[in-house]
Amino acid sequence: MHKTESLREADRLMTICNACRYCEGLCAVFPAMELRRTFGDGDLNYLANLCHQCGACYSDCQYSPPHEFNVNVPAVLAKVRNESYARYTWPGFLSGAFARNGFVMTLLTAASVAGFVIGFVVFSAPAALWSANAGDFYRVMPHGIMVALFGATALYAIAAFVFSLRAYWREIHGDAPRTGLAAFWQAVGDSVSLRYLGGGGGGCTSEDERPSTARRIYHHFTFYGFLACFAATSVATLYHYAFGWQAPYAIVSLPVLLGIVGGIGLLIGPAGLFVLARKRDPKLTDPTRRGMDTAFIAMLFLTSFTGLLLMGLRDTSAMGSLLAIHLGVVLGLFLSLPYGKFVHGLYRYLALVKYAGERRYGSFVD
Ligand code: SF4
Ligand code: SF4
Prior knowledge:
Elements: H1 5-20, H2 29-33, H3 41-50, H4 56-59, H5 73-88, H6 101-124, H7 143-173, H8 181-192, H9 214-243, H10 254-279, H11 290-312, H12 319-336, H13 343-361
The structure holds iron/sulfur cluster (SF4) (2 copies).
One iron/sulfur cluster binds near residues 17, 23, 60, 63 and 73.
């Protein structure tokens, strides 16, 4: 017996699709479905996280409304997928953050920005907020304190991801044979190329019935922008600890260039995804989680915007206040990562690992 109404509906649809099989060439969901005759909660949470919500199976379906079968795979899998984030979250009492994500993110960010403003005034001096400090952030907030604060937050987020993903993997994989390393590599390739965000060829049909690659392109900007920003921080850490090269770094240095490139990607990608989300056909979505989607892309955009602004104005008297705002936004983003849309990439990656394992080793689940 399924735990929720969405899971019951997904079971009904997968049973119809398994008899029909018309959409088997569109994405990974249908071939994975065909390996099953029945669908437990774990199976449905696995299939839901394989779905990219491209909409192709809705526009191709002869049983979609107004047909009495009322088949709407993208919307039902979106609901199951969104509920799966809350189901496996760690610690469990924070699972409600997914339902009130926009509010939670706004509150966390506002509190973080206020915390940095007050912290600069109390521990540096009020003048720190309107001082250029020769572009040196560590004169306003010592390097050790910055590392301790963001390091502790990152460790907490990693712990939350590990516990949540372990619970997810246990439910979708159960007692199936161990997945080989090759499946993990295959899933990396499928993730970085967004292989299944293509609706079987021409792209997504979720905005209108004409396939478009725009959503895939903006996802790429977002994903690689995020990676470039992560690389910028990693290189700066290496400079600091391995070579003793202290910030601020020149505009043509590797960490700054990576940060600028990543920041531009994180402006273009989230802005494009925001525009596409507003154009998306609402009947293909889960309206209860629209706030979560918007909050995450808004936070990415804001992080990048404040970061680039800080970089451009770091030698002016606006540096102190911009630093407080940027660090507040970044801390808000970090704290909310395990309880927002960011997790969709991690769940999807594990679903792709399982899919690659099943394809490679040909398991059949009854
Ligand atoms: S979505 Fe419709 S056309 Fe596609 S497999 Fe399911 S029932 Fe068949
Ligand atoms: S919406 Fe796209 S990704 Fe999801 S099941 Fe349908 S075809 Fe596959």
